Amino acid sequence: MSKLIITVASTGAWPSKKDNPAIPLTPEEIAADVYECYQAGAAVAHLHMRDDEGKGTMSADKFEKTVKLIKEKCNIILNLTTSGDLNATDETRQAHLKRLRPELASYDCGTMNWMNNSVFMNHPKFLEELGMTMQEYGVKPELEIFDAGMLYNSFYYLKKGVLKAPLHYQFVLGAAGGMTATVKNLVFLHGLMPEGNTWSALGIGKGHIPIMMAAIALGGHVRVGMEDNVFYGPNELAKSNAQLVERAGNFIKLAGHEPATPDEAREILGLRV
What we know:
eight-stranded parallel barrel
């Protein structure tokens, strides 16, 4: 019986309480939400921050306050985003990593058109700097893969020494500008990934369930949460992120596996203990 990791992405940078009143936005709300998700079976929490107006921010102070509140409650693995504010500078996208030294942080493996209205910029110079920052501060990158080109970028940065094996991939399917959330696309990306690495997958919106079920069937890990999907079912808003985590845990158990605890996830991902 294998252990599969559930990551919860509870907030993101764009969904609002107009989309779902249960989405947490403040440090206090996020911390309480993450603790509920930990109790429901999540081993990793992927964190975004919001400013006082509810917009995505890379404020290191917001991250610090939220991380402190979460660590007072539980030992869930914290995965801090390095994106979420399209106007952030290369410096502000890394400042919180240097201050807080999280176990995981996102590493978006290329530039892409974003939601048909903007550009998600990840310049090669920034990616090289970010990779070296993560090595210096002991942060394991979670490689965010929105299309196959980003996967090949990771091979280049691995060869160059910017990234260190084994790698951990997060296949993000369904974002406008990236690959659509189909099982065929997930199987294609999974087939390109070299052996010896770990991986997780998510489908945005209506692709949420098919991608989660396919990832479990392939032996991968999963990510759920209102960053990616505010619904529980057709025309039914999720009551909480913990509800989404609990369902993922049930699917994992039905497939003959068990949700990993945070410490088991640390062992799977090769994190420092």
